[in-house]
Write a structure and sequence with these properties.
By secondary structure, this protein is α/β, with parallel strands linked by helices. The chain contains 7 helices and 4 strands, in the order H-E-H-H-E-H-E-H-H-E-H. A 4-stranded parallel β-sheet has the order 1-2-3-4, sandwiched between helices. Helix 4 links the parallel strand 2 and strand 3. The longest helix is centred in the middle third of the chain and has 29 residues.
C-alpha cells in the first residue's frame, strides 16, 4: 500500500474472507461508512486454484490415448478442492455482488450520465475445452462464474447497475507463478500458448478494467472481454 498509495484518492486496505457471508457483510458495512454516497465500481477478483492432485505442474499428465490412465489421474481430484474452488471463485462473487448492490445503485446518481458496474474477473479457462493443465475443477468453477455473471446482469438490469466480465489468459500472478516478491510482482517462467507469444502484462489488464470502469464502458453489460493474447483463438474453445 505504501508503494502505490500516491496520486488522487487513497487506498484503504480492508481484509476479508469473501468465502464467508458474515465477513462480506462486515466488509460492506465498512465500505458504506467510508463511502456514504455509494460506489461506482465493484471488481470481484478473488480466485484460487486448488487442483493440487491433478495439475500437470506437480503431476505428470496422463497418456491421453489411454482411458485407464486418464481415469486414474483425474480420479485423484479431491472433492474438498472442488468445494473450495466453487466457494471462492463463484459463490463469493455472488454474495459480494448482492451485498454491494445498494451501494452501487446509490453511486449511479453521483456522476451524471454514468452508471455503476460490477466487473467479475473470470478466466479464459471457463471457455477453453482442455483441462487447462489439469486444473479441471478450477475451470469448471470459472465457467459457473461466467453464467452466474450473466444471471446477475439480468437481475440487476432495472437498477442501472451493469455487470461485465473479464476472462484473462495467462498472466504472471501468485497463482500461476507460485509466489511474488516484496513488490508483489510475480515472474512466470513457463511457456505460454497463445497468438501473442507471451504472458500478459499489467497494462493489458489495466487497460481492460479502465475501459469497463470508464465512460467508454457504460454501454456495455453482460459482456466478456478476453485479454488472453489469442489463447482462445489457437486453442479449442467455446466463445
Amino acid at each position: 500500500m505504501e508503494l502505490y498509495n500516491t496520486g488522487p484518492g487513497k487506498i484503504i486496505p480492508i481484509t476479508a474472507d469473501i468465502s464467508k457471508k458474515e465477513e462480506i457483510k462486515k466488509l460492506m458495512d465498512r465500505v458504506s461508512t467510508e463511502e456514504p454516497n455509494g460506489i461506482q465500481l465493484l471488481v470481484n477478483n478473488a480466485g484460487i486454484a486448488r487442483d493440487y492432485a491433478t495439475e500437470f505442474a506437480g503431476n505428470p499428465a496422463p497418456d491421453f490415448e489411454d482411458p485407464g490412465a486418464i481415469s486414474e489421474h483425474f480420479w485423484k481430484s479431491d472433492p474438498v478442492s472442488w468445494q473450495q474452488n466453487f466457494t471462492t471463485n463463484c459463490m463469493g462473487g455472488y454474495f459480494m455482488s448482492i451485498a454491494f448492490l445498494p451501494l452501487l445503485a446509490r453511486g449511479c446518481d453521483v456522476i451524471p450520465g454514468y452508471s455503476s458496474s460490477v466487473v467479475n474477473v473470470t478466466s479464459n479457462s471457463a471457455f477453453l475445452k482442455n483441462t487447462t493443465r489439469g486444473h479441471i475443477s478450477y475451470g469448471a468453477s470459472k465457467a459457473a462464474f461466467v453464467h452466474l455473471s450473466r444471471m446477475l446482469a439480468h437481475l440487476f438490469s432495472q437498477t442501472k447497475v451493469r455487470v461485465n466480465m473479464i476472462a484473462p489468459g495467462t498472466f504472471p500472478t501468485e497463482m500461476t507463478a507460485g509466489g511474488s516478491g516484496p513488490d508483489q510482482k510475480s515472474k512466470l517462467t513457463r511457456a505460454v500458448t497463445n497468438a501473442a507469444g507471451r504472458a500478459g502484462h499489467e497494462i493489458d489488464m489495466a487497460a481492460t478494467i479502465l475501459f469497463l470502469a470508464g465512460r467508454g464502458g457504460t454501454f456495455y453489460t453482460a459482456q466478456t472481454l478476453f485479454p488472453d493474447g489469442g489463447e482462445t483463438l489457437v486453442e479449442a474453445a467455446s466463445v
